[in-house]
Here is the input.
Amino acid sequence: MATIGAVAKQAGVSIASVSRVINGTAARADTEKRVRAAIDDLGYQPNSAARALKVRQSEQICLSFDDLSNPAYVLMTRGVGQTLSSSKYRLILSSAFSSVEEIVKHLETMGRGFADGLIISPIYSDPRIAELISQLKMPVVLVGTMPEGVNVDNVYVDSAAGLDMAIKHLVETGRKNIAFINGPVATNPGRRRKAAFEKSMKQLNLAFSNSSNLQAEAFTPEAGYRAISEFRDLKNFDAIICANDQLAAGAMKFCVEKRVAIPRDIALVGIDNIDLASLLRPTLTSVDLRAEERGQIAARLMLKRLANPDSPVKKITVQPQLIIRESSVA
Amino acid sequence: MATIGAVAKQAGVSIASVSRVINGTAARADTEKRVRAAIDDLGYQPNSAARALKVRQSEQICLSFDDLSNPAYVLMTRGVGQTLSSSKYRLILSSAFSSVEEIVKHLETMGRGFADGLIISPIYSDPRIAELISQLKMPVVLVGTMPEGVNVDNVYVDSAAGLDMAIKHLVETGRKNIAFINGPVATNPGRRRKAAFEKSMKQLNLAFSNSSNLQAEAFTPEAGYRAISEFRDLKNFDAIICANDQLAAGAMKFCVEKRVAIPRDIALVGIDNIDLASLLRPTLTSVDLRAEERGQIAARLMLKRLANPDSPVKKITVQPQLIIRESSVA
DNA sequence: TTGTACGCGTTATCAG
DNA sequence: CTGATAACGCGTACAA
Here is the structure.
C-alpha cells in the first residue's frame, strides 16, 4: 500500500504538504494539484491505524445491544446506520449479549480506544454495568432506561405512556378484562412494562390479578405462543396486551388455532409496531415505540457530543404512538 | 489512559517485558506476576490503534450489503456476528448501499486498512465492483453470485434448485398455471431468479408468458402488493411464486382483501423462509435459502483465510430447503 | 507556504 | 530471560 511518503515523492513535495492537502490546511494551488494527482495516481488512502494513533480518534462508533433477532433492535440499528452513514464515522456492531458477564467484558474492552463513542441499549440492569459505563472515558449514549447513578446522553421512550394509551383504547372500545403477556421480568423492558401496566390498570380502576399477568420466557413469537397457552381460560379475558409484537404474533397464532376470534372474542395489542404488525391477519394494533427514530436520535446525540464534548448532558424523550389496526376493533 | 510504559514503570520492568507478558511470549514467573498485577492495578488495555499500526492488523472484519431492511440480510448478519463473537475480530457493518456508486466508494475506502477482511454480498453486478474487489489487498468472502473475473472465497446458495423445488412441489400438488412475482431484475437475485424460473418451467413443459412474470420494484411487502394487483386476472393462475417472503406477504395481503382463498384458489410460495413465513396466515410455504447459515459459513471462511492466506480459494454451495406450509397445500 | 523532525503506543530485533 | 531501541504511518510544532 502506498504511504504518504510515496505520494510526497511522486509529487515532489514533503510529506507535510501531502498531509496538509489531505486535511484541508492551506496549500498553494499548484502544490495541491500535484499532490492530488499523485494521490490519484497511486490510489493512496491514508492508513487509519496510523491516523488513529496520532489523532486519538478511531472514527468508529460502537453500537451495542442484546440481540439482533429482535426486530426492534434491527430498526434501531438501521436508524443509527443511516445517520452515521452521512458522517465520517463507521459503525461497529456488538450484539448477542446473553449475560451481564458478556456486557461487562465488552465494556472493559472499550478502553482499547477502537471506538470514539458507544451507543448502548442494555437489556439488563446491573450495578457493574452502570459503574463501568460511568467510568468510560468516551462519550456514551444510552438508549433505554438510565441506570441509577449514570449520567450520560439518553434517549428514552415513554413506554408507560404507550401502555396507557393501549389500555385506554381497549377500555374505550368496550373491553373490560385485560390480560398482559410480558417478557422476562429480569430485563429492563420487562420490569418497566410490568410496572406501567399495573399502574395504568389501577388508575383506571380495572381489575387485574397475578393470573392475568403472564411472563413469557423471551420476547419471541414462540414464547408468546407458550405463554398464552398457560392461561387457564381465555374466556376470562376480552383483551390481551403483549409486551412486544413478537409475543403478540405468537399469541395470535394460538388464538387462530383455538378458533378464538380476534378481535371479536379477544382484542390483541402489541408493542413496537414492527413491519410484522401490518402483515399479520388480522393486522395488529400496536404501540409504536419508534425504534428507528430512537436510533437516529441516538446517533445524532453522539455526533453532537463528539463535536462538542463539554455540552450539558441531554435526555431526549420520544413519545410512542398507538397504531390502531384490526386486532383491536371490530 | 494507561500506556504500556506506565505498566512497565509500575511493575519495575521494561516495556518489552510487559509486551511479552501480554502476547504470551516467555517470561519468568515472578515477572509475569508483577506485570499482571500492574495491569490490573492500572486497568491497562492495549491501545488498538498502536497495535494495528505495528502489526498491520485491525482485528476488524467488515460486512457489507445492500440494506438492513431485508430480513434475509439480518439473518446473515446474525450468522456472521455469532461466528465472529467467538473470535478476536470485531464486526463492522456497512449497509445501505443504494447505488453502484456508493459501493464503489465504500470499496475504495477499504484501502485504509481499517478492516482485515471484507465479507460482501453485493446486490448489483457492475464491472467496476468486480474490478475493485479483485484488486483489494485483503481477503474477501463474497456471499452470492460471483462476478465475472473475480476469484475469492465464495458462499453460494443454489437458488435455482430452490425455485425448481418450489415449482415441482406446486406441480405435484396439482397446480398448472404458475405465475412469478420477481424483484427488480436489475439486481443479482432478481436476474438469477428470473432465469432459474424460466429454465425450470421450460424443463417441466409448463406454459408461461410475460404476463405471468411480474417484476416488483423492490423486495418489500408493499411492492409485492402492488405487483400482484397488476395481474389482469388472478383467476388465470392457481399458484404464485414470489422472489422472496416479503413480496409473498404483500401478495397474501392482497389475496385476503380480494377474498382469493389461499391455498384453495391460489397457492403461494415465497423464498428465504424468514420468521415471518410461519407467522402469516395461512403460514407461508417458502424456500429456505439459509441466510443465517451462509453468514456463519462466510465468517468461518474468512477466519480460515485470515489464518491461512495462501490456501486455495474455496467455494461452498449451500442447498436450499423447501419448507412446506399451509399456503401451498389444502 | 513549505520542509524537517519528533512523537503517538506497540511490537520485534538484537545484544546482553 | 530481559532491556534498549528501531520501526509502523501519520500529523504538526517549529524553523526556514
Summary: Residues 3-5, 15-16, 19-20, 22-23, 25, 46-47, 49-55 of chain A lie near DNA strand D (CB under 10 Å from a C1'). The two ends of chain A are 66 Å apart (CA to CA). Chain A touches chain B through 47 residues (CB under 8 Å).
